[in-house]
Amino acid sequence: MIYFDNSATTFVRDEVLDTFVKVSKEFVGNPNSLHTLGLQSKKLMLEATKQVADLLHIKENEVIFTSSASESNNMAIKGVLGFYPKRKRLIITTPLEHASISVTLQQLTEDITVKYVELDDFGHVNLQSLETLLKEEPILVTMHHVDSEVGTIQDIEKIGKLIKKYPKTLFHVDGTQSIGKIPVHLEDVDLFSMSAHKFFGLKGIACLIKKEKVGLTPLISGGASQSIYRAGTPSVPLIASFAKALRLILEEEEASYKTVKEINTYLRGELETCQNVVVNSKEDGSPYILNFSILGQKPETVLHKLEQFEIYLSTKTACSSKKDLSTTVFALTKNKDVSKSSLRISLSKLNTLEEAKTFIKILKKEIL
């Protein structure tokens, strides 16, 4: 099997699953309970929270565990709007966002105004356009670090420093596709989302980093739990497994990047020589994502043909795969034919150059 859909989800690594199983068996108490079993679970939860905080160079009370990056993104947007009712109801974003941001903003349009920052030909935020919008004092700027479909990397350090000049505006970053893959610095970021199943962790556990100075109205109310910002019984096994997965992926980040970069470079070079193939991802993007189009062929047809050879990739992001056209690719290319036929290869440290060569061989022989 050749698995090229790692941006949708990754395999769970044995060490992480072992942690989940062990904690599930040995720490049965509800961490909100005051008896010994509860206190033991709470102690472990706090240790895992501290580990996450230390790894990200933030404070422990800035870590909020959630069920998914989509929940984290919703919590950031709706939580800020709820906590700062007197601030201007204007949110700045990009046209390339994941559905958990773009659809959330669409649902809120009766209460807010959404404006889109201009992008350059590579999909990067135009800083001059952003500063013009920041002068309107928006309550929030929300955007991805790495685009989940084409891999465009936003310079969140430079963007964050610019936003800091406007104290009434907060900066939320969807880091789902960046954490553990490229360096992440949170000094000038107010809110940051991530999810464990994108870095060999379990599904159902994610995180929102909320800096101490930032106010937030909870999405889920009911009292203090792991965090005052999210009620409910914390899953200590999932939290412990999250900390383990994060530690391991950050330790491997540099070596993994080199492996993936080599594979990406080979695939790009081969695809660019193929007739009727357009590579949509820019060379300065994340090597973990390579988006391309085969003109004249439906991406679903290509996907299912490749499945016959146990090769798995995706048409678009998993959360928007039912749309006929990739809005992200169209925003960059302005070409409907290219946007309707886009496919996404997403890599991980587990992939090999031999897999890439096999994929290209089958693609040329059976599809092109």
Q: What is the fold's blueprint, element by element?
A:
Elements: E1 2-3, H1 14-26, H2 36-56, E2 63-66, H3 69-83, E3 90-93, H4 99-107, E4 113-116, H5 127-134, E5 140-144, H6 156-163, E6 170-174, E7 191-195, E8 206-210, H7 236-251, H8 253-271, E9 277-279, E10 289-294, H9 299-307, E11 311-312, H10 327-333, H11 336-340, E12 342-346, H12 353-366
Parallel strand pairs: 1-11, 3-4, 3-5, 5-6, 6-7
Antiparallel strand pairs: 2-8, 7-8, 9-10, 10-12
The CATH homology group name of the largest domain: Type I PLP-dependent aspartate aminotransferase-like (Major domain)
Main structural class: alpha/beta
Radius of gyration: 21 Å
In the CATH hierarchy, the third-tier topology of the largest domain is known as: Aspartate Aminotransferase, domain 2
Q: Helical percent range?
A: 25-40%
Strand sequence of the main sheet, in spatial order?
A: 2-8-7-6-5-3-4
- Runs in which pLDDT lies below 50 for 5 or more consecutive residues are 317-322
H/E element order: EHHEHEHEHEHEEEHHEEHEHHEH
Overall number of domains: 2
* Coarse morphology: globular
At the first level of CATH, what is the class of the largest domain? Alpha Beta
Main sheet properties: 7 strands, mixed
**Average of per-residue pLDDT values:** 94
Record field, number of beta strands? 12
CATH architecture classification of the largest domain: 3-Layer(aba) Sandwich
Taken as a percent bin, the fraction of beta residues is: 5-15%
- Total helical segments: 12
